[in-house]
Automatic annotation (TrEMBL):
InterPro entries: Transposase_22 (IPR004244). Keywords: Coiled coil. This is Protein unc-13-like C. It comes from the Eukaryota. Gene3D superfamilies: L1 transposable element, RRM domain. Residues 52-79 form a coiled coil. The lineage of its organism: Eukaryota, Metazoa, Spiralia, Lophotrochozoa, Mollusca.
Length: 253
């Protein structure tokens, strides 16, 4: 081999060596990829931590705001409850005052009702006659403070009559004598407020109740088990409540 040939081979080897130096091996490439992957994961982890930290801060802030709202709602609910109790108390006081104003009054059902032009004098005269002759209770026209029909005249039915006496004793005598009217078509009741009428009616329709009545505006029921209950404004009108002696101060031996 001549000198020129040897030089050519040497130059070729040098060029090949330089090319190999600039060539990335597979292991080197894997190493670079792994490094980039680690760096990327580290960046993602750092960003996630920042996001989580920010979200936790926001959640804590919202929880604090929510707690403040809960406290405000609780205060408002208590105010509503207090207002409802106050209104209920006012309503009961009004009902009691209205009932007190009717303490000398009764209602009579079944009296003849022939004319829409019936005068107060005619009404009073009819009541005096009814009480003296049907109830056998002595009554004069001056025992009556005022008397009048309820509602408009209707020739298909008899309107009730409200009678207010000048003294409560006369009312009591008539209420006591009304038992003689059973089956006669006439009825006599105390003049109750609308609220008390409704409450007494509601109590009467309970399965556990035998009878309901009032004395001087106070409401009572007699249960089918023989117990007598006085109904207060907060008495629950349920069989379970009314039949429980503990709710009314009774003690079993």
């Amino acid at each position: 081999m001549g000198p020129s040939k040897t030089k050519t081979v040497t130059e070729s080897l040098d060029e090949l060596s330089k090319k190999l130096e600039n060539t990335i091996t597979k292991d080197c490439l894997n190493s670079i990829v792994a490094k980039l992957k680690d760096e990327l994961q580290a960046d993602i982890h750092r960003e996630n931590e920042e996001i989580v930290h920010s979200l936790k801060g926001r959640i804590n802030s919202l929880e604090s705001e929510n707690e403040d709202l809960r406290e405000k709602v609780t205060i408002l609910e208590q105010r509503v409850t207090d207002s409802e109790e106050f209104i209920s108390d006012l309503g009961q006081q009004h009902n009691d005052l209205e009932q007190h104003g009717r303490k000398n009054s009764i209602r009579i059902n079944g009296l003849p009702d022939h004319s829409e032009r019936e005068s107060v004098e005619d009404c009073v005269s009819m009541i005096v006659d009814f009480v003296n002759n049907r109830l056998k209770v002595p009554l004069r026209s001056d025992d009556i403070d005022i008397a009048h029909r309820l509602g408009r005249f209707d020739n298909t039915k008899k309107r009730s009559v409200i009678v207010k006496f000048t003294n409560r004793q006369k009312k009591h005598e008539i209420i006591k004598a009304r038992r003689t009217l059973k089956g006669s078509g006439f009825t006599v009741f105390e003049d109750l407020t609308k609220a008390n009428q409704q409450r007494l009616k509601e109590a009467y329709h309970l399965d556990c109740v035998q009878n309901s009545y009032s004395i001087d505006g106070k409401l009572f029921v007699v249960l089918k088990n023989g117990r007598k209950r006085k109904l207060f404004h907060d008495t629950k009108l349920t069989a379970k409540y009314l039949e429980n002696d503990a709710n009314f101060g009774y003690r079993r031996n």
